[in-house]
Amino acid sequence: MKFSIYVIGVFLFTSLLDAGEIACWGTEDYGEATPPSGSDFIMVSAGYKFSLALHDDGTCVAWGREATASLEPPTGESFQSIAAGHSFAIGIRTDGSLVGWGYNAAGQTDVPSGSDFVFISAGDSHGVSINASGELEAWGDDVESQLDVPIGNDYVEVIASQYFSVAMHADGTLEGWGRDSVGQATPPSGIFIDYALGRLWGVGVKKDGTLEVWGTSETGVNDIPQGDGFVSVGAGNMWGIAIDDTGRIWHWGEDGQGQDDVPSGTGWEYVDGHYYHGIALGMVDCNGNGIADATDIKKGTSIDENPADGIPDECQGLPIGGCCLLHGLCVKSAEADCEDVDGYWAGEGIACDVAPCVEECSSDLDGDGEVDVTDLLEMFAAWGTCP
Question: 75 or 110: which carries more pLDDT confidence?
Fold first, then answer.
């Protein structure tokens, strides 16, 4: 599981995603490619034939394979981060402490104590975390020394895979440990803005927006898309996915179970993969203005009144036009919504940039178009306690 990481100079900034909707593809043996509906998800993570998603209220939902209780997040918990592994999962509670659930043969759900964790990842049978001091900690299976984490306090991201892990330093460089049979734990030098791990390989987005692969060369994992506009990546068993700067998803490598059937369109913000299914999270932007619908509604640039369902009214099939409000402000709305807020509806199809909205002058008390002594006298006449 990873956030979006942006490199500016030698500093990295972590960005939470806008609330969005989920798309899945690939194998459907246990319903893993049928995600829950909704547009309030802020995080997703793909495990072995199951996935997790985090609502913006901190609740976690799971779907897919039900074996070993992987699909049963603890009830009554509020999370700030989640990570799905092979048959287990980990969460960071809102108080910074960890909780694990699912298969525990190697101690992979026996999470460390403490309340200062800021990043987690779940591999095949081990987990890794970063605390607020930038230090790594690992637990679970240690068959390939995957618990021998590097020492340091400048780590900002970590990803666990099959018996190996790779972490990112604050300067954007990568460092790996654990099984390194084909170079999967030896990432290339240079500065990266994002990266992902498959079963025996890894892929990263370099600072210039190009992709670079390391580890095994099986089944076409080296056949990466060309170009310098990539911003994020994900990886499955022996296949990769990337998002470019338009939000379009690209696929390469293995494709025996529909891994190349990626969601169409643009606006996707995050992708993840595990073995043979993928998951994507994207901004919901029904009016196509480049702003998430939830942000439109929150900022008042769209009205959600008819009905109040989290979807801007202009996307509900009603006639839409500019609605002039107090002080010359204008929003897109249906006529009834505009009247409900005492606005002036400019008419169907009339955009705000051409709507005849007049910036009212609140100091012109007598309404003559001038602010002068008569307005002052009006104020003096009304001086005192309002009726």
Answer: 110
